[in-house]
Amino acid sequence: MPSEIELINARMVRQEIESLTELLQDAVDSGASVGFLPPLAAETARQYWLEMAEEVENGSRQLWIARQDEFIVGTVQLSLVTKPNGLHRAEVQRLLVHRRARRRGLGQALMEVLEAWARAHGRTLLVLDTRQGEPSELLYRKIGYQPAGVIPQFCLSETGKLDPTVVYYRILDKL
């Protein structure tokens, strides 16, 4: 279990860009379907995190990291809907846990922190998607996410095959 999970700001994203880059590369290289295909070039990963820093800075995204010793071993993001009719909802994105920290409850701990923040900020509907058959599906179901449906041929895999994704949602209780 990590020593700390913290919400970070844009300055911290930029300061931690090398650790975040390594985490994203590890996730992609170990088969996670998070928008990239292996092998993920370091510069591509760095550019992704710089874009995320801009969204954190403008308030449209929240980003948590988990540290174990001095290493970032996990992260999760919440993309906030900013349109007036959607201020109650957000999308969970890129729950990443480094291979060396998996199967210890870190993914669930990150999701719990994210959900507590969402509740405290009036976000009562969370949505996410994950490639069908991923281990993350077990976690999402365990913590209360409901499948809304499957979209066939949604994402390209490293084998060149188009894989389906499952869309999940969770309605959070208000504080």
Short description:
The chain is an alpha+beta fold and 175 residues long. The protein has helices at residues 10-15, 17-29, 42-58, 106-120, 136-142; strands at residues 4-8, 61-68, 71-80, 89-97, 125-131, 146-156, 162-171. The chain contains 5 helices and 7 strands, in the order E-H-H-H-E-E-E-H-E-H-E-E.
Characterization of this structure:
With 175 residues, the protein is an alpha+beta fold. It has a single domain, classed as 3-Layer(aba) Sandwich (Aminopeptidase). Helix content is 33%, strand content 34%. The chain contains 5 helices and 7 strands; from the N terminus they run βαααβββαβαββ. The chain has helices at residues 10-15, 17-29, 42-58, 106-120, 136-142; strands at residues 4-8, 61-68, 71-80, 89-97, 125-131, 146-156, 162-171. Strands 1-2-3-4-5-7-6 form a 7-stranded mixed sheet, sandwiched between helices.
- Distance between the amino and carboxyl termini: 27 Å
Structural class by sheet pairing and helices: alpha+beta
Shape: globular
Name the helicity range. 25-40%
Number of strands: 7
**Arithmetic mean pLDDT:** 96
User: What is the CA-atom radius of gyration, in angstroms?
Assistant: 16 Å
Report the sheet with the most strands, covering strand number, pairing sense and barrel closure: 7 strands, mixed
Tally of DSSP helical segments = 5
Task: Give the number of domains.
Answer: 1
Order of helices and strands: EHHHEEEHEHEE
CATH architect. name: 3-Layer(aba) Sandwich
CATH superfamily: Gcn5-related N-acetyltransferase (GNAT)
Low-confidence stretches are none
CATH class: Alpha Beta
Strand content: 25-35%
Strand order of the largest sheet: 1-2-3-4-5-7-6
Under CATH, the topology can be stated as Aminopeptidase
